[in-house]
Amino acid sequence: MSATAATPNTAASVDNPIHHHNALGCWSEFARNISGEWDGFGADFTFDGKPIELPENVVPNAYRDWEVKVFDWQTQCPTLAQPDNSSALYKLIKLLPTVGCEADAATRFTVDERIIGGQDNMVSAFAYQSNGCYTAVWSTQKVGSSRVLELEHCLIDPRDKESRVRIIQIMGVDEKKGLVLKNIKVFVEQWYGPFRNGDQLGGCAIRDSAFATTQALAGSQVSGMWQRSNSIASFQDSPNSILQQLVKVDGVEKLVRDEKHLVLLPKNLWSSVKETEDGEKIWCEVGWVLEAGKSITSKCIFSRNSELKEIVTSSETSSPGSGV
Predict the structure, then answer these.
(1) pLDDT confidence of residue 324
(2) Please, which residues have CB within 8 angstroms of residue 49's CB and are 6 or more apart in sequence?
(3) CB within 8 A of 65, min separation 6: which ones?
(4) What is the pLDDT of residues 163-217, one digit of tens each?
(5) Rounded to an integer, what distance in angstroms lies between the CA atom of residue 96 and that of residue 101?
(6) Where are the domains of the chain?
């Protein structure tokens, strides 16, 4: 699956020098925080959160002989962002599983390169924060099938800038049903050095391990009353600005989250796709519970006809008496 190109543009408006300067400063800091070698593990899940086994043809015979099921890819994600021209690229590299130390797992199975900004831009919408968090909308197409969107949510642990998760919601675009969740991809990654284009593998130095079949998040940890502060990038009012800075808005929003629309995932992660009560918007949201009563979220808000309106990232705390 490869992303379709979109007309490149930048987030800053040259008509507003102050905004232009602030946006470039934010992007420059974002570039520093996102660039480098990110190694870890990745897994695919069904639309209701069940882990999907790796294809049989990539699993070593020893695992099959021992009747061991394999659900996780070992991955590399070398990333390089240019601080002065609002462009970036990364490669998602899946490595063939091996028996023994991950340092031996150097055989690449697939390499998926993504380019953000510049003349070769591949992203439909990209919202970013200086800390390295971002949300990207990739428009993709499978042969013989309808249009597919990949909603990529990259969340950085605010307590540890070298630890991040990427949750990708694969959405089918149906003319009658609108956006429909097809499946979910999760990558749990650690930064282990400057950008080297994936030439060196973190191997056994990686601080994470396979996670697909570990305990999923309990619904009680994310449901209940919450309050959150938001940062927003509006794409409805700026249809030609593909790259946008997430700008913090004043005030605190209160919400009640129930378990009905939640897909609970390992590593304290969750996904949710739901319509607003008036049926005019669709929210595609993911979250990461950092500790009891504290979480970070990323949300893409679409109109009923599947056009992106806003991207919102939030820092959340449970409200007193919520039971979270």
Answers:
(1) 56
(2) 184, 216, 263, 264, 265, 271
(3) none
(4) 999 999 999 998 777 899 999 999 999 999 999 998 877 555 556 789 999 999 9
(5) 13
(6) 17-60+69-318
Q: Tokens for 135?
A: 């949300």
**CA 183, CA 172: separation in Å to the nearest integer?**
9
Note the pLDDT of residue 22.
63
What pLDDT is stored for residue 100 in this prediction? 63
Superfamily for 17-60+69-318?
Answer: Calycin beta-barrel core domain (2.40.128.20)
Q: With helix as H, strand as E and coil as C, how does 136-180 read?
A: EEEEEECCCCCEEEEEEEEEECCCCCCEEEEEEEEEEEECCCEEE
Instruction: At 62, give phi and psi (nearest 5°).
Output: -60, -40
Q: CA angle at residue 248 from 6 to 262, to 5 degrees?
A: 75
**46 to 58, 69, 125, 185, 186: CA distances (angstroms):** 20, 16, 25, 9, 11
Residue owning tokens 């697939």:
110
Sign (positive or negative) of CA dihedral 214, 220, 221, 227: positive
As given in the structure block, the two tokens for residue 256 are 């009640």
Return the amino acid letter for 202.
G
Q: Where are the beta strands (DSSP E) in the chain?
A: 37-46, 72-76, 79-82, 87-95, 108-116, 125-128, 134-141, 147-156, 163-174, 178-193, 224-234, 243-245, 247-248, 253-257, 262-265, 269-275, 281-291, 294-303, 308-318
What does the DSSP 8-state code read for residue 194?
A: S
DSSP run (H or E) holding 31: helix 17-34
